[in-house]
Amino acid sequence: MSVITATSAVPPLHSPRSTPRPRVAMMVRSSNAVSAASILTKLHSDCATPLPLLRQVSHAMAADMRAGLAADGASDLKMILSFVDSLPTGDENGLYYALDLGGTNFRVMRVQLGGKEGRVVATEFDQVTIPHELMFATSEELFDFIASKLAKFVEKEGGKFESRRGRTREVGFTFSFAVKQTSINSGVLIKWTKGFAVSGTEGRDVVACLNEAMGRQGLNMRVSALVNDTVGALAGARYWDDNVMVAVILGTGTNASYVERVDNIPKLHAPKSAGGSTIINTEWGAFSRGLPLTEFDREMDAASINPGQQIFEKTISGMYLGEIVRRVLHRMAEDATLFGDSIPEKLQMPFSLRTPDICTMQQDSSKDLEVVGSILYDVAGVNSKLESRKIVVDVCETIAKRGGRLAGAGIVGILQKMEGDSKGAVFGKRTVVAMDGGLYEHYPEYRRHLQDAVTELLGPEISKNIIVQHSKDGSGIGAALLAATNSIYPH
Ligand code: BGC
Predict the structure, then answer these.
(1) Measured in angstroms, how far is the CA atom of residue 176 from the centroid of ligand 1?
(2) Which of 363, 376, 353 is nearest to 446 (CA)?
(3) Is residue 193 lining ligand 1, measured as CB closer than 6 Å?
(4) What are the tens digits of pLDDT across the range 358-376?
(5) Model-level pTM?
(6) Chain segment 245-260, per-residue pLDDT in tens
(7) CA–CA separation, 237 vs 258, rounded Å?
(8) 364 carries an active-site annotation
């Protein structure tokens, strides 16, 4: 699962007087100086998400889903088949592992399942930060690192966790990048996202990469299920609630999966009589139509390692919101002396302002916006006046509001597509959208804007049936459950 560590804890307050002055770099200003207020006004209008715009976004999302289901390559949305045709029932039993690689952290987990009676008897996990250099290393180096951490974790098995004698341990591998799945336990990496640029993995089966690395560690383990984090989250949430039909991750990156009827997937070429359902991984981060984008988004995209790609993700997800705000503030500092005569060096550094920072600034209810002042000082190296702090909070709110509302419109797009194919089956009954990811979990204003957009788009009556709810850490347990469902051993 992708996690941004958006702590709600306020960072320590530093008195600017008691710490050394931040370094500043003098820049020559452009002669046509403007006011911060006018940049802000333009930002408000460029980021506006009125209801008609949200409607267009949700319709475009539904249309792109249909196109992606019709044929590969026909849409921004890849609509990837997950090969998960049966969701957990509650009967799953035994010890299973889950390995979750999706962002700056990866997680190993063991889950002891006890069938309908015992359910999830016990879980244990370890979380490891991926060293930054490994995000640019070779595939072998990355997978060897992961397998070595897994081996250490397996060594500590004991207590409530019992693996059956003579059996190979089975792993559910949550791999949260765009993969062309070829079976439940194989899939080829299409593209790294979220800042990863590991060489030699794209075009390869990531399960083979992991199995080989586990072999090099001498581990007797096999991957029984390869799942996207949204697919794991859907399976995990469905284990507790039969009404879960959609799962959305809003963390470092973003994506959504949902339950689709097999006969609604023309590219599957399934016999008309096939019936049944499967999970589709939309990879909605690649969606791009009708989004209200600003010059700051365009510049950030152009400077990214995947220009022109993942535009929805770059507009709404945790990896990027802080960076968009930084770019706006930098422009305000440069063109409108927001922080005085000089432009702080740190503020010029891409990604120096993180989404947890903008979230914390938005929570500041003090009269002088002290927390905002302290974050600006620590993170961006600026000494700010109250007036500037207010503008900064406004910029954070504008970017978070646009992100939350667009995410809400995306969810409604999925629901409308499902409802369009099966009148009443989604809007006419309780339907749950399981949400996870650090951005959703830790950013209350973002969450509120998302919910507002869903309610505005669906109207009060239908909204009563649509439950958008946090389902924490479902993807790890979901992957373990899918490993159980797809076990090589008889149930
Ligand atoms: C990846 C998806 C993933 C999402 C959330 C995106 O960048 O392409 O596969 O589900 O992030 O982690």
Answers:
(1) 5
(2) 363
(3) yes
(4) 999 999 999 999 999 999 9
(5) 0.91
(6) 999 999 999 999 999 9
(7) 12
(8) no
